[in-house]
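Tutorial handout. Part one gives the primary structure; part two gives the three-dimensional structure as tokens.
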Amino acid sequence: MDQSWYHALRQEFVKDYFRKLKAFLSSECGSNTIYPALHDVYSWSRLTPLESVRVVVIGQDPYHDVNQAHGLAFSVLSPTKPPPSLKNIYKQIRTEYPDFKIPSTGDLTPLASRGVLFLNACLTVRAHKANSHAGRGWEQLTTAALRAVAQREGSAGVVFFAWGLPAQRTCAAVGIDETKHLVLKSAHPSPLSAHRGFLGNDHFRRANDWLEARYGAGGGIDWTCIRD
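Part two.
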């Protein structure tokens, strides 16, 4: 874990829920395959240090098949093709930024390194079993991480993308001050719901307009930086 995040979350690591989570994960690793690989569980923290966060994308559960999850919500390792939800995210970026050429890669690392925190509520999963590590304690840690973003001193503000009801409930649990931060809500980009409000939400341009008003020209995110 990046030191900025470790410092912000250090009090969580001595709490009872985290001790139980560690014991559970130790048992799981001894008898099952878990994703992402252990060295990638906290990759979000290394790619997007706390002080660099300008946009937060809240996901739920890591992908649970081979060569997919690597610690960033919605992102997959190459050569895995972008999953359906990510395809809809790309589609919406292209709607707002027509020069964006939709890539064949699903690796969102370039955006993460530019200040976009792709954080799942749950950070691990048993292979081929969706939500198998839900309710084990990760949600408490990641809510604390989001709270650290929302309460960061010296920040001009952060944009939170709350796509879908679970992400919106997470934002409510964090207690985000919406006079300081921008919370953009819509349906989830999943094919089951994208046409009910995600597609056409204009979130990427709205986020950049807000960030540039707060941080100045160039203060937004280059949403088109992902290329083959």
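Part three, for discussion. The helical segments are 3-9, 16-31, 43-47, 84-96, 109-112, 138-150, 165-174, 203-215. Residues 3-215 form a domain with the Uracil-DNA Glycosylase, subunit E fold (CATH 3.40.470.10).
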